[in-house]
Amino acid sequence: MPDPRTSELPVWKIHAERALLLGWGRALLLQLAHPKVAAGVAQHSRFYRQRYGGLRRLRSTLGAMLALSYAPEQVPAVARRINRIHDRVNGRLAEGTAHIPAGSAYSAHDPELLRWVHATLIDSFLVTYERFIGPLTAEEQDRYCADSRAMEQVVGLPPGFLPGSVAELRAYIDGMFASGEIAVTGTARMLARPILWPDAPLVLRPFGAVTRLATLGLLPPDIRVGYGLRWTSGQAYLLDALAWLVRHGLPLVPGPLRYWRIARRADPEAAQPLLILESS
After folding, report:
1. Rounded distance, CA 274 to CA 122, Å?
2. 177 CB-near residues (< 8 Å, 6+ apart)
3. Half-sphere exposure of 148 toward its Cβ, with a 13 Å CA cutoff?
4. What are phi and psi of 211, to 5 degrees?
5. Short-list 261, 219, 232, 252, CA closest to 15
6. Full-model pTM
7. DSSP assignment of 182-202, as one string?
8. Residues 34, 37, 40, 46, CA torsion sign
9. CA 239 to the chain's CA centroid
10. What is the pLDDT of residues 74-119, one digit of tens each?
11. What's the pLDDT tens digit per position in 225-272?
12. Contact between 162 and 168 (Cβ < 8 Å)
């Protein structure tokens, strides 16, 4: 059985790690910091209204991401499902901001929204991998971004529209922050609560506390403030300790516990450099 750490395909190596879940909350809160994304989720997703809805949403999105990464035969079906979901997600903002007035139209097929969701997910995975799992070379990070452009074909974006390197990725995200378009709304704060404090079975609640600490610590400070979240020196110390424990503990974890099963069973020659975009 191949070891994901030895893969020459960074997306295959990175997505194999279950510990990457520590960055999922960061990605979601960054995505929701775009008012149109938050409106689309609030008006068209049921995850925050259903019992264990967040866990069901995570399982569905994670399953799609892993299928796109490791099961090329499933790519057409997954792509059709993503686009069918996006077909239904459109409407108008009930809550405006200084840069996006109330009543503005949104659509999940909007290329700009797809790019924001995509970029924040890639950035969060890179940040999480390096903080909790191990270093990535500059070449690996650039290859990860470049390979992720395969998603352009899945959701109908023009070639070269998505960031193709870490420099392009960070420049794009910095530009979005500077534009004022990214603003945490009341809708986003409402949606953040079930992400940070998910409705989960009792046995999973300790893991929720761990992911909440990682989410708070990995968020950009201005976004964290926008959500009204506190961050203390004590929490920073706990996050450093958690990162140290995960980094040094993972090499001792058996493969079946450390890596997703689909990743452990995948053929490295067939692995596809794809990322999931849909997370609403």
Report:
1. 11
2. 220, 222
3. 33
4. -65, -30
5. 261
6. 0.91
7. ----HHHHHHHHHHHS----G
8. negative
9. 19
10. 888 888 988 999 999 999 999 999 999 999 999 999 999 999 999 9
11. 999 999 999 999 999 999 999 999 999 999 999 999 998 887 665 544
12. no
Rounded Cα gap, residues 163 and 51, in angstroms: 36
- The number of residues making up the chain comes to 280
Q: How far apart are CA 110 and CA 267, in angstroms?
A: 34
CB 217 within 8 Å of CB 231: yes
Task: Kindly state the DSSP code that residue 133 receives in the 8-state scheme.
Answer: I
Can you tell me the distance from the alpha carbon of 97 to that of 187, in angstroms, rounded to the nearest whole number? Answer: 12
Task: Enter the tokens of residue 84.
Answer: 């069918």
Which tokens go with 151? Answer: 């998603």
The 10 Å CB-count burial string (b at 16+, else e) for 234-272 is: eeeeebeebbeebbeebeeeeeeebbbebbbebeeeebb
Tell me the C-alpha to C-alpha distance, in Å, between residue 256 and each of 125, 132, 249. 21, 19, 15
In whole angstroms, what is the distance from residue 105 CA to residue 152 CA?
Answer: 23
pLDDT score for 275:
45
CA 46 – CA 60 distance, rounded (Å): 13
pLDDT digits (tens, 9 = 90+) for 16-72: 999 999 999 999 999 999 999 999 999 988 766 656 556 677 777 888 888 888 887
Hey, how many other C-beta atoms are within 10 angstroms of the C-beta on 7?
17
Q: What angle do CA 207, 114, 26 make, to 5 degrees?
A: 25
